[in-house]
């Protein structure tokens, strides 16, 4: 029993810490409360609007942190050096499903500074490795918002169309895209391209081949080449068969303009890992560098690994007023020494036990 | 095995027939019984009947891999699911209706009675119209007649109920039909099965 004293989530956190340390990431500890201004200025970056606020003793408005990334950026020094940090922190957000505040345990990492293809590759591999720590049945879906933007810009359909298109894309809603194209008078040729984007899903080389015909010039070509190079490197990684391209992975384009990704575990109903490259957020916060990172939502793992517990305790010891206290202490110590968990009670109650030791009525 | 949540009632039966024709039959479902879950291991499907407005909850939370529900539910609750196919059945529309001859001159807060609070709020927010939402659970048509509201936002199929109560549609908000939805994580791990089923049903619908 004592071997199982750590919850599976805690074991995972320990393994992830070790993994991130191996690649030079340093632990980052942040305070539970942050100034509210930090969040209100970057509201759209957060998953929901809701932030729990309260006044400090000096009247300053504080917030229970809904996010770690913003704080890490603010506390990073803009000295041209690359900063690699990891964290495990509780954040407080409104849950999408219940629309109520929830405490979420997140483990993640951020790499801030000069981000090149190696940093992107390393982050994606660490994301895949993090999923592998949780379960061997996982997938890591990657999209590239820069490539999507470039393709959409070439079509010149307008901002309203792009916003509505991104919503349909996130829901893999091909029929919605058809109606949208009709509404905005989008040409048949462009409509076909958009439908390819919404339907393409799977191994990177397969998806890249599907979209290649409309990435032959300008910015789209440049972004395509970059993602192709990255995918070739990933194909040589140990995670190659778990990585897929999926343009339905979208994120707010105000902050993300490059790689975005989401990780799924078989048996968990929603994505457990999400991340991306957020250079635009960094720029908005007045920093002159790039950044990439991800977070794993550990609260989603609750109950995923656990088997139903059949007993609460190994041995239940019953005693009453006639039991000798000394004998009781010796009996309990001896049982514990042998590796049992012991619960001493006067009555059985609802306790589920493996073995019963009855010392009532002075029984030895 | 694909777990499929079907909406109880006429729409669900219609949709099941489509799935069965597409090659995903489960004959036990047609037997008159109180059972709620039906399985055909040979075809790799397990169907279950749930309340129509609950289908998206079963799918979003992964109890069902896919399901069929109205666009009204998707617009109202915005579940985080994939919307894979317009099944072109259960066709109707979300509309604003009022007593015949009603004219909104915009001078006072508009009283809106509805079951679909979010859809109504979004519609009027887009027009910057100040409204007072009255959340009702049924018999919405009665609200403007008794002066409880100026207008209603509700699903309109043929418009007969409205006509019989001396009401008329003054605006259509969005068209509604049944949609095939999928849980995002299920789609990742049962991609081929879900894509196959979607394609076969799509070919039937035309």
Could you please describe the fold and organization of this structure?
With 364 residues, chain A is an alpha/beta fold. Chain A folds into 2 domains: 3-301, BirA Bifunctional Protein, domain 2 (2-Layer Sandwich), CATH 3.30.930; 313-362. Chain A has helices at residues 8-22, 36-41, 69-75, 117-134, 145-155, 159-170, 174-183, 188-199, 204-211, 218-235, 279-284, 325-337, and strands spanning 26-27, 33-35, 53-55, 61-64, 83-94, 101-113, 138-144, 201-202, 243-246, 259-265, 273-277, 290-297, 313-318, 342-345, 353-358. In chain A, α4 packs across α10 (218-235), α6 runs antiparallel to α7 (174-183) and α7 (174-183) packs antiparallel against α8 (188-199). Chain B is of the alpha/beta class. Helices cover 32% and strands 33% of the residues of chain B. Chain B has 8 helices and 11 strands. Chain B has helices at residues 10-21, 55-60, 71-77, 117-126, 142-145, 160-164, 184-189, 191-205, and strands at 2-7, 37-40, 45-50, 66-70, 81-86, 92-99, 110-114, 131-135, 151-156, 167-176, 178-183. The longest helix of chain B has 15 residues, at 191-205. Chain B is elongated and about 65 Å long. Chain B starts with a strand and ends with a helix. The interface between A and B is medium-sized, with 22 and 19 residues.
Note poorly predicted spans of chain B.
none
Percentage of residues in DSSP E strands of chain A: 15-25%
How many individual β-strands of chain B? Answer: 11
Biggest sheet details of chain A: 9 strands, mixed
Q: Roughly what fraction of the amino acids of chain B lie in strands?
A: 25-35%
Quote the distance from N terminus to C terminus of chain A: 26 Å
Radius of gyration of chain B from CA coordinates: 19 Å
What structural category arises from helix and sheet content of chain A? alpha/beta
Mean pLDDT of chain A: 89
**Coarse morphology of chain A:** elongated
**Uncertain runs of chain A:** none
The appropriate CATH architecture of the largest domain in chain A is 2-Layer Sandwich
* H/E series of chain A: HEEHEEHEEHEHHHHEHHEEEHEEHEE
Overall mean pLDDT of chain B: 94
């Amino acid at each position: 029993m004592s071997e199982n004293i750590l919850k599976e989530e805690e074991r995972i956190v320990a393994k992830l810490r070790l993994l991130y340390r191996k690649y030079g990431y340093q632990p980052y500890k942040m305070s539970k409360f942050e100034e509210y201004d930090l969040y209100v200025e970057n509201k759209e970056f957060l998953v929901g609007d809701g932030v729990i606020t309260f006044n400090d003793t000096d009247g300053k408005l504080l917030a229970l942190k809904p996010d770690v990334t913003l704080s890490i950026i603010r506390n990073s020094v803009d000295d041209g050096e690359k900063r690699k940090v990891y964290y495990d922190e509780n954040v407080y957000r409104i849950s999408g499903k219940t629309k109520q505040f929830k405490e979420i345990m997140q483990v993640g990492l951020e790499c801030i500074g000069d981000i090149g293809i190696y940093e992107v590759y390393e982050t994606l591999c660490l994301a895949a490795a993090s999923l592998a720590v949780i379960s061997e049945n996982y997938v890591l879906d990657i999209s590239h918002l820069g490539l999507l933007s470039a393709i959409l810009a070439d079509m010149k359909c307008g901002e309203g169309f792009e916003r509505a298109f991104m919503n349909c894309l996130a829901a893999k809603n091909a029929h919605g895209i058809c109606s949208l194209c009709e509404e905005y008078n989008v040409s048949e040729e462009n409509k076909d391209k958009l439908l390819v984007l919404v339907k393409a899903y799977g191994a990177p080389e397969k998806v890249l081949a599907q979209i290649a015909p409309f990435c032959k010039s300008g910015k789209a070509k440049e972004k395509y080449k970059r993602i192709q190079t990255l995918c070739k490197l990933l194909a040589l990684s140990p995670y190659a068969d778990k990585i897929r391209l999926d343009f339905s992975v979208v994120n707010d384009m105000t902050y993300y303009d490059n790689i975005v990704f989401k990780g799924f575990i078989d048996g968990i109903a929603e994505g457990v890992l999400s991340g991306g490259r957020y250079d635009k957020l960094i720029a908005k916060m007045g920093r002159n560098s790039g950044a990439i990172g991800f977070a794993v939502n550990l609260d989603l793992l609750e109950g995923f690994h656990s088997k139903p517990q059949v007993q609460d305790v190994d041995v239940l010891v019953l005693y009453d007023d006639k039991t000798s206290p000394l004998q009781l202490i010796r009996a309990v110590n001896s049982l514990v020494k042998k590796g049992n968990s012991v619960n001493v009670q006067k009555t059985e109650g609802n306790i589920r036990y493996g073995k019963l030791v009855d010392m009532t009525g002075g029984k030895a | 095995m694909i777990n499929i949540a079907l909406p109880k009632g006429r729409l669900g039966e219609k949709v099941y027939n489509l799935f069965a024709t597409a090659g995903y039959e489960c004959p036990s479902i047609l037997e008159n019984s109180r059972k709620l879950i039906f399985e055909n291991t040979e075809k790799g499907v397990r169907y279950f009947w749930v309340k129509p407005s609950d289908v998206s909850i079963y799918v979003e939370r992964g109890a069902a891999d896919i399901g069929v529900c109205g666009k009204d539910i998707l617009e109202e609750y915005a579940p985080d699911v994939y919307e894979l196919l317009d099944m072109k059945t259960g066709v109707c529309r979300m509309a604003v209706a009022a007593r015949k001859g009603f004219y909104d001159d915009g001078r006072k807060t508009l009283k809106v009675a509805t079951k679909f609070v979010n859809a109504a709020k979004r519609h009027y927010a887009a027009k910057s119209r100040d409204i007072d939402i009255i959340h009702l659970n049924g018999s919405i048509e009665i609200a403007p007649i008794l002066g409880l509201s100026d207008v209603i936002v509700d699903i309109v199929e043929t418009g007969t109920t409205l006509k019989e109560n001396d009401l008329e549609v003054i605006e259509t908000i969005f068209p509604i039909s049944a949609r095939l939805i999928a849980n995002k994580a299920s789609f990742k791990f049962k991609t081929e099965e879900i894509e196959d089923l979607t394609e076969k049903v799509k070919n039937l619908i035309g």
